[in-house]
Amino acid sequence: MPVGQIPAITGKLRKRLILDLSVALGGGTALGYAYWYGIHIPSVQRRDAYYAKLQSERGA
């Protein structure tokens, strides 16, 4: 290669784009599952238990 020439960068943008998309989708999915099963489901269960208790007290 002659002095002063920069070698061509081929395929780096595509590889980086695929990596970025994979990390974003994988991380988003993991955080979505963590929220759903770690926060949402337990809060719904607490709410349902509260209303079931309230209903049983009203019926008694």
UniProtKB/TrEMBL annotation:
Keyword Transmembrane helix attributed: yes
CC per GO annotation: mitochondrial inner membrane
Topology within the bilayer: Single-pass membrane protein
GO terms for MF: cytochrome-c oxidase activity; oxidoreductase activity
Transmembrane portions of the chain: 17-37
GO annotation terms (biological process): mitochondrial electron transport, cytochrome c to oxygen
Entry keyword annotation includes ATP-binding: no
Domain of life: Eukaryota
Main location: mitochondrion
Subcellular location: Mitochondrion inner membrane
CDD domains per UniProt: CcO_VIIa_fungal (cd22888)
Pathway info: Energy metabolism; oxidative phosphorylation
Keyword terms of this UniProt record: Membrane, Mitochondrion, Mitochondrion inner membrane, Oxidoreductase, Transmembrane, Transmembrane helix
Signal sequence, start to end: none
Family: Belongs to the fungal cytochrome c oxidase subunit 7a family.
Function: Component of the cytochrome c oxidase, the last enzyme in the mitochondrial electron transport chain which drives oxidative phosphorylation.
Stated name of the protein: Cytochrome c oxidase subunit 9, mitochondrial
